[in-house]
From TrEMBL:
This is Glycosyltransferase 2-like domain-containing protein. GO terms for molecular function: hexosyltransferase activity. Pfam families: Glycos_transf_2. InterPro entries: Glyco_trans_2-like, Nucleotide-diphossugar_trans. Gene3D superfamilies: Spore Coat Polysaccharide Biosynthesis Protein SpsA, Chain A. Residues 33-153 form the Glycosyltransferase 2-like domain. It comes from the Bacteria. The lineage of its organism: Bacteria, Pseudomonadati, Bacteroidota, Sphingobacteriia, Sphingobacteriales.
């Protein structure tokens, strides 16, 4: 029997949204596996887990894989064992977040898999909306608002409201990731394309690349997650560089991008021409010097519109396009020099 209900959710105490949805027979809903990876989760885990067990979408399994926490994380998890769909696994050693998510995905039995961080807050209709909108795509992702350690929005979003991936090719994600793991839901079948996950780099950048490469990706422009920004988050802890460049955004971008490009070029399913393009970018990051500067400026200049989709599209003879290519390549060179001096490359 069809039943209409009005779903109201106050996101972080600041965003009110009213969603009308049909209550469907649970037996007709595809199973969704929410994979949560924990490691010394700290004080935020309860807030996140409460928004998972109270999702409007009812055919769920929640898979938590703890990566050898040494704090009270397991005690918090034990408080949710009464939920029959809540499953807890523990690692005997710390294996890192990429491999921990890989292990969690391997346990998933759902038709769809959603990725979850340990310290965010989900909209209670998040899974409902993602399942409704994924269609025939491999993967769907959404937007997030940023909150601080006290759950207060800081007035920023991960992606601009104008963001739209229509027309994006795989080159658009090579130098900047815009598919964040905590916003993703993907089909079980897609898991075979992304497992095993790389040992290094960011798993979400990798899976975003794979989905975009096959043109089976959709963006839902709604803030379905409150993404917590705090000093103890996994991402913040991973952004450690040489003392002279620590917390330097250019250094962070260099390190992350080169790591991901190296992962991308090893994917066997790539067309040879696409593989060669990625290898050229790797070569630029690894070997750039003053003598090769002009060659790399021309390479970036020619491919600028594809590589920088967030920027305004510019004609081939655009002076601004050439200037931006010069600035980008010079920055890569400067960071490489800085890293070489610090003996960190």
């Amino acid at each position: 029997m069809e039943h209409k209900s009005l779903f109201w959710f106050n996101l972080g105490g600041f965003i009110n949204r009213i969603v009308t949805f049909d209550m469907m027979n649970n037996l007709n809903l595809p199973l969704v596996s929410i994979v949560v990876c924990t490691y010394n989760a700290g004080p935020y885990l309860n807030r996140q887990l409460d928004t998972l067990v109270n999702q409007s979408y009812k055919n769920l399994e929640i898979i938590v894989v703890d990566d050898f926490s040494t704090d009270a994380t397991l005690e918090v998890l034990d408080g949710y064992r009464d939920y029959p769909f809540f499953k807890i696994y523990t690692n005997e050693t710390n294996i890192g977040f990429n491999k921990n998510f890989e292990r969690g995905i391997s346990f998933a039995k759902g038709d769809f898999i959603a990725i979850c961080d340990q310290d965010d807050i989900w909209a209670l209709d998040k899974i409902e909306l993602l399942v409704r909108n994924i269609g025939e795509n491999h993967l769907i992702f959404s937007n997030s608002e940023l909150i601080d350690s006290n759950d207060i929005p800081i007035g920023k979003e991960l992606l601009p409201q104008s963001f739209n991936i229509e027309g994006f090719g795989f080159k658009s994600i090579l130098l900047r990731n815009f598919v964040t793991g905590h916003t993703c839901l993907f089909s079980k079948g897609f898991a075979s394309f992304i497992i095993p996950l790389p040992e290094s780099g960011y798993y979400d950048w990798f899976i975003g690349f794979r989905a975009l490469y096959y043109k089976k990706i959709k963006f839902l422009n709604l803030n379905l997650t409150s993404y917590r920004v705090h000093k103890d988050s996994v991402i913040q802890k991973s952004l450690v560089g040489p003392t002279s460049a620590r917390n330097n955004l250019a250094w962070i971008n260099y390190k992350s991008t080169l790591t991901e490009l190296r992962c991308f070029k090893e994917i066997l399913a790539l067309k040879q021409s696409d593989k060669l393009f990625i290898e050229k970018l790797v070569n630029m990051y690894e070997t750039i010097c003053a003598k090769s500067l002009l060659r790399w400026i021309l390479f970036i200049y020619i491919n600028y519109n594809d590589l920088f989709p967030f920027d305004k599209k510019r004609k081939l003879l655009s002076k601004t396009r050439m200037l931006k290519a010069k600035i980008f390549v010079q920055e890569v060179l400067n960071v490489k020099k800085s890293m070489a001096k610090s003996q960190f490359l």
